[in-house]
TrEMBL record:
SMART domains the record matches: PRY (SM00589), SPRY (SM00449)
Name of the protein in its database record: (Atlantic silverside) hypothetical protein
GO molecular function: zinc ion binding
The keyword Metal-binding belongs to this UniProt entry's keyword annotation: yes
PROSITE patterns the UniProt entry points to: B302_SPRY
Length: 297
């Protein structure tokens, strides 16, 4: 009889502990989701704040250039303004390493799928670079291969979590980078297969010094970035938030951000190294190890 009572007490203790464990784990899951949502919101807030700051600085620069012949600023105010701008710059730069570490924590491995590459692209054996060539490669004709535009996409897609990757773009005058559903057209009309021209993909395009963002055939010009050159471009996306962000990875400068809503399929990394552009664009696009990016400038 005593043995049964002892056994029942242990069973009661186990029930209490199991319930406590369930509640604790559920609470931890809730806190984790809430923290991730805060991080997503902060990333989006930082992006919009930086865009507003860029526009404000551009406006100030325009006013100063317009009025500098008419206004004589005294030395004291000039020193104050200089000190303020220096401190602002130091503050902004102090935040960049934190941003860099955050994105690096989401770094994903990327292997390009040579079976999807246009026949005028050479994909490295490691699947980490794509190079344009004028020679049409002797490759199998398959439904997965792009045959009208110079695209290649990754072997693997993803459908949850947060992902970040970087591509080296230095020395190039034309490129496109982005993300795409596997349903993006591979053959047919050329425009249908371009990144960002349909609802299946998102991209940023660089051509002769100008940046443009594309999705659903809608062109978003990015005039504040005109003339800027970056060594690496970073691409970040998050499920289920539906956020796609492009950054100049050297300084974590926001290029453009799409709030896509809920993604309806898995996403693949996509890139287009572009044609030769009158002999100025022969260099490869190379996927980098985003966990080991060069130091922030």
């Amino acid at each position: 009889m005593a043995k049964e009572r002892i056994k029942k007490k242990y069973e009661d203790m186990k029930r209490v502990l199991d319930e406590d464990l369930r509640i604790t784990l559920a609470q931890l899951d809730t806190e984790h989701e809430a923290t991730e949502k805060v991080v997503e919101d902060k990333i989006e807030d930082c992006y919009h704040l930086t865009q507003e700051l860029d526009q404000l600085l551009a406006s100030i620069s325009t006013v100063v250039k317009t009025q500098q012949g008419n206004i004589q600023m005294d030395e004291f105010k000039n020193d104050q303004l200089l000190s303020l701008t220096i401190n602002l710059l130091l503050f902004i730069r102090s935040q960049v390493p934190v941003t860099k570490k955050l994105f690096q924590s989401y770094a994903s491995d990327v292997v390009l799928d040579a079976d999807t590459a246009h026949p005028k692209l050479i994909v490295s054996p490691e699947g980490d670079s794509a190079t344009y060539t004028e020679t049409w490669q002797d490759v199998p004709e398959t439904p997965s291969r792009f045959d009208t535009t110079l695209n290649v996409i990754s072997q693997s897609g993803f459908s949850d979590g947060r992902h970040y990757w970087e591509v080296e773009v230095s020395g190039k005058t034309y490129w496109e980078l982005g993300l795409t559903y596997p349903s993006i057209p591979r053959q047919g009309r050329e425009e249908d297969s371009w990144l960002g021209r349909g609802k299946e993909s998102w991209c940023v395009e660089y051509f002769n010094g100008d940046y443009t963002a594309w999705h659903g055939g809608v062109r978003h010009e990015l005039p504040l970035l005109a003339g800027r050159q970056f060594t690496r471009i970073g691409v970040f996306c998050t499920f289920p938030g539906g956020l796609v962000c492009f950054l100049g990875a050297d300084t974590m400068t926001p290029l453009h951000c799409f709030c896509a809503g809920t993604f309806t399929d898995s996403l693949h990394q996509a890139l287009c190294p572009g044609h030769d552009n009158e002999g100025t664009n022969w260099k490869s696009l190379k996927v980098c190890d985003a966990k080991r990016s060069p130091p922030v400038l």
